[in-house]
Amino acid sequence: MPELLEVSDVVAGYGRGPAILNGISLTVRPGQVQCIIGPNGAGKSTLMKAIAGLLPVRSGEIRFGGERIDGLRPDQILRKGICFVPQERALFPKMTVRENLRMGGYTLRDEALLERRTEAVLEQFPILRERAHQHAGTMSGGQQQMLAMARTLIVEPQIVMLDEPSLGLAPQIVQQMFEIMHMLRNRGMTILLVEQNAIAGLKHSDWGTVLDLGRTLFEGPAPEVLVDPRIQELYLGRSAAAAA
Amino acid sequence: MIDILQVLVLGLALGGVYALMASGLTLIFGVMRIVNLAHPIMILTGAFVSYWLFTLYGIDPILSMPVAALVLFVIGLVLYKLVFAREAASAKYSEMTVLLTFALAMSFDGLLGALFSNTQRVTTPSYGTQAIFLGDLFIPTAQLYAGIASFVIIGGLMLFLRYTRFGYAIRATTQNRAAAQLMGVNVEFVSLVTFGIGLALAGAAGSLVSFIFSFFPAKHWEWIAILMSLVVLGGMGKLMGTIVAALLLSVIAAFVGTYAGSTWSTMTFFLALFVMLLVRPQGLFGDRIEEA
Ligand SMILES: Nc1ncnc2c1ncn2[C@@H]1O[C@H](COP(=O)(O)OP(=O)(O)OP(=O)(O)O)[C@@H](O)[C@H]1O
Ligand SMILES: [Mg+2]
């Protein structure tokens, strides 16, 4: 399969601080759900921020459909077709649900198209329709996550990056969130997922990439990564060391 | 009864002008977290534009509002590019901008003083000394017009923020800058244009100020504290809050001025600020103290 997104030897960090990504490489193939796992502080969120253009790349390159995108601004990268839903969900607390959806289509210059897609999302998510005029900041965590994910449907990007979408959600809401993720994939979007819960994340994914200390440790089909002994070592070894 | 109505109407008219004076300040703070201490001197710059257009060419100050706004818009773009854009990446951004805007205020104060001297001036259109009588109600025409013009501009600003694409971008950047970027907003561009719009509002306010107050370059020091108190009371960067604070305090100040003497009327703003900081530091409409 051809690569959709290709990260090669990327080094990046915050401000003048030390490098957090230490020459990381990874490829994302179209049509898959690819899960990135790794211990706390491995650089998973940092990687997503670097791809989204929120963090400058110090060396190495990022290509999307063969074209360099490192060095572009976040708004330019979104226009290329990569949408990032960060851990904090990136909602506008004092805008209504409807306004948040419209903001999601900020790059669409066609008002009729924007309105049509906003309606389609509200059609698909009755809870959002019910709360269309409520401020996003007053919704529950699960509803906010639903809004953030549903909002990506408005731009119809090629890649959606989800950073710990299950964070702080009750188990049955997490299940619902994974269903929305699969719905996005079935719409033709490629998903790059970061999950703290490695088992749940891998179970819902096609491909798994394991990160540690700002590098790719190993990767493979999700079911294989799930049973790889190195995973046990990485997670259990860490917690054993922390306990000692 | 008629006294009360009279004071109320005058308070609201003046409050409208204060709201316009503070609206640009609050917009700029909301989007860029810049506390623009140079805002009042920019208002005076707008006042001088209208003053000279009237004195030299007889152009009505209300009609010259767009000119003052445009001049200040351009000044805003240039200042942002020259002074603030390069600071945006600095970790000490907020602290830096306080020093920078203070320096700007001093420079423009000096410049205007050198050009026009610190004599008291006032634009004198024909309605400057007239009054309208509605029944027993007596309203100075100048203040009435200034109030109405302010409300029209503020109304336009709110419609612009609420319904236009660029308005969405400004609100989004104010509420969550990183999220706005992720939605495809070029926040640096939004900052640039918003700084221009903020100063344009100052310029427009200046045109009105030029015929309802007598003014001179150093007068801006008096206004800094009043405008800052409105922005803080309104909840730092919340436009609606600032407008409500301006109207409310102006009306209160008008009553205090009428019944307790004018010395006390300016005090109203600081007293309200003082009490608010003690009781509700996030302001009337703020929901939390946002880290800069
Ligand atoms: N804004 C920031 N400024 C400076 N350093 C940061 C910042 N954000 C993260 N870091 C540092 O970068 C490293 C990697 O953080 P990152 O958030 O990418 O980890 P992560 O893999 O997403 O971890 P988690 O599972 O806890 O979310 C950490 O050491 C962290 O302290
Ligand atoms: Mg993280």
Automatic annotation (TrEMBL), chain A:
CDD domains the UniProt entry points to: ABC_TM1139_LivF_branched
A single GO BP: L-amino acid transport
InterPro entries, A to Z: AAA+_ATPase, ABC_transporter-like_ATP-bd, ABC_transporter-like_CS, BCAA_Transport_ATP-bd_LivF, P-loop_NTPase
Keyword line: Amino-acid transport, ATP-binding, Nucleotide-binding, Transport
GO molecular function, one term: ATP binding
SUPFAM superfamilies: P-loop containing nucleoside triphosphate hydrolases
Pfam families, per database record: ABC_tran
Alphabetized Gene3D superfamilies for the sequence: P-loop containing nucleotide triphosphate hydrolases (3.40.50.300)
ABC transporter domain residues: 5-238
Protein family (similarity comment): Belongs to the ABC transporter superfamily.
Listed name of the protein: ABC transporter ATP-binding protein
TrEMBL record, chain B:
Range of residues in the leader sequence: none
Keyword vocabulary terms for this entry: Amino-acid transport, Cell membrane, Membrane, Transmembrane, Transmembrane helix, Transport
Main location: membrane
Single annotated GO MF: transmembrane transporter activity
GO cellular component: plasma membrane
GO biological process, one term: amino acid transport
Record's subcellular location: Cell membrane
Pfam families in UniProt: BPD_transp_2 (PF02653)
Bilayer-crossing regions: 6-29, 41-59, 65-84, 96-117, 137-161, 182-205, 262-279
InterPro entries attached to this UniProt entry: ABC_transp_permease (IPR001851), BCAA_transport_permease (IPR052157)
Topology term for the membrane: Multi-pass membrane protein
Family: Belongs to the binding-protein-dependent transport system permease family. LivHM subfamily.
PANTHER family: AMINO ACID ABC TRANSPORTER PERMEASE PROTEIN (PTHR11795:SF445), BRANCHED-CHAIN AMINO ACID TRANSPORT SYSTEM PERMEASE PROTEIN LIVH (PTHR11795)
Protein name: Branched-chain amino acid ABC transporter permease
